[in-house]
Specification:
Rossmann fold; 3 domains; 6-stranded mixed β-sheet; 7% strand; binds flavin-adenine dinucleotide
Amino acid sequence: MPNIEYHMTKFRSIFWHRRDLRIEDNIGLFEASENSKSLIGVYVLDPNLLNLNRTTSEAKNWFLGESLLELQKNWKNRGSCLLILKGDPIKLIPKLAELIKAECIYWNKNIEPYEINRDKEITGQLSKEKRKVYTFLDQLIVNPSNIKTNNEEPYKVYGPFYRKWIDIINKKNLSYNNLIQISVTAKKFTGPDESELTSIKNSDLNYCITSKSKHIYDLLTSNRFKNTNLCPCKPGESESQKQLNFFIHSGAINIYNNARDIPSLEKTSNLSAALSLGTISCRAVWNGAQVSKNMTADNYKINSIDTWIKELAWREFYQNALFNFPELEKGPYREKWLNFPWQNRSDWIDSWENGLTGIPIVDAAMRQLKVSGWMHNRCRMIVASFLVKDLLIDWRLGELFFMKSLVDGDLASNNGGWQWSASSGMDPKPMRIFNPSRQASKFDEDGNYIRKWIPELSHISTPNLLSGEIISAERNGYPKPIINHKNQTSIFKELYSNLK
Ligand SMILES: Cc1cc2nc3c(=O)[nH]c(=O)nc-3n(C[C@H](O)[C@H](O)[C@H](O)COP(=O)(O)OP(=O)(O)OC[C@H]3O[C@@H](n4cnc5c(N)ncnc54)[C@H](O)[C@@H]3O)c2cc1C
C-alpha cells in the first residue's frame, strides 16, 4: 500500500487526473478522498500531449473526450466536481492550488520522460508555496524500482523480466483466489465549499466545469468517431469494465492462445486504449484473468489465460524499459542503427500509410488503422516489418504515423513495438523479417481479414489474395505491388551487414 502520513486534520485538496481516467480502483484518488476535508478534481488538456502532428490522433482525442465526459459525471455523482483546464500544467496546477488555497495536491505518477520532468517542475513550485504533493504508483502492477536483476540492474530482455515480474506478484500478500488486494474504491467526496467555487468562478482560469465543457467538445466536434462503432476500443470507465467482462465471460480469454493471432476473429480484449488512458486499472485486468482461471480446470484454457497475462507483462516491460532508459524515446537502443542508410522514399511512405502498397495483408492492416483507429497486433508486426525491412524506411516515421493514427497510441508500447520490429531495441534479432504472404497464409488462411478491409479484392481466389499475385484484369483499381519482397530484403540484409 502507498506510504502516506495520515493526518488528524484533513485538508483542502486537489486530485489531478492524468492517465487514470476513472474513479474506481484509483490509488491516488482513494488516498486523496480519505485524507481531505474538501476535494476537487482536475484534468489538464496539455497541448504537448494533444498535438495531432506528433502525440495524438483523432481516435485518441475521441476516446479521451468521451472518457472525460463520463468522469465529470462520476465526480458530480460523488458530490464534487472535475475541472477541465486547457494549457500548460506547469502554470495551471500551481495557479489552481493558489486560487482555492489547496493545501495538498495528489496525483498518480507516470513513467514518460516529458511527464517526469514536467512533474518535477510542478512539485518544486508547489513545495515552494508550502503545499504538500502526494504521488502514487498506480498504472503498473509492479513498481519498476522493484524489478531488478541480481546485479541490481534493470532488465533489458523480456523473458527474464517476465519471470521476475510474475514472481514478485506471486510473492505479494495474496488473499482470496489470487486477486491482488490493492484494489481500492473511492466513495463519496466532499465537494468544494462556496468560497472555493467563488474563487474559481472569479478567476481567469480557462476552465470548464459542466458536462457542456467547451474544451471537451473541442476534442469531439467534427470527430468522425463520435457516435459510431468504427473503433473497437470503447471509451469511459463503465464501457472499459464491460469490455473486460465480455472478454472474460464470452470465453474469449479461454481461447486466446490460438485466437489472438487471427485478426479476422476479433477475439482479443481491445483494452489497450483503456489501459493506456486508465479508464480501467491494471489490477482490474489482472484480477479478471485470475477470476477466469478460477472458473476452469482445463489446461488449454489456463494456458490461454497465462498467455494473455504475458501480454499484460509486455505492457509493463515496455514501460519499465522507457522508465529506465528514457533515451529510447529519441531513437534506437542499439547505436549501430543510427548509421543505417534509410532510403525513406516519400512515394513508398505514402503508399504504406494509405494502404496502397499492392501487398494485400499490409494494405488491409493499414486500412483497418485508417478506418478504425486500431490495428490487430499480428498486423502491427507485419506492417512494421514491411516498412523497415522491405521499404527501407526509418522505423521512427512508422512510429510517428502510428501515434498520429492509433486510439491506443502510447509512447512506451509503441516505441517498444517499433524497436522490436526494427530490431533496433533491447532484444536484437536483426534478421527477424516477416514475409507478408507467408504471414497472410498462416494467420488469414481464408483471406477473411483481407476481404473485409480491401473490398475491391473480394472476388479474388484465396491463394491469389494471400500471395498477392493478382492479374491486372482482376485488380479492380487495386495497385500492383510496389516492391518485390525477396529483392528488397536482400538489399536490407546487405545494408545491415555493412553497418559498423
Ligand atoms: C509496431 C507496434 C506498435 C504498437 N503500438 C502500441 C501502442 O501504441 N499502444 C499499445 O497499447 N500497444 C501497442 N502495441 C502492442 C499491441 O499491438 C496492442 O497493445 C494490442 O494489439 C492491443 O489490442 P488488445 O487490447 O486487444 O490486446 P490483447 O491481446 O487483449 O492484450 C491485452 C493487453 O496487453 C497489452 N499488450 C498486448 N500486446 C502487447 C505488446 N506487444 N506490447 C505492449 N503491450 C501489449 C495491451 O495493453 C493490451 O490491451 C504495438 C505493437 C506493435 C508491434
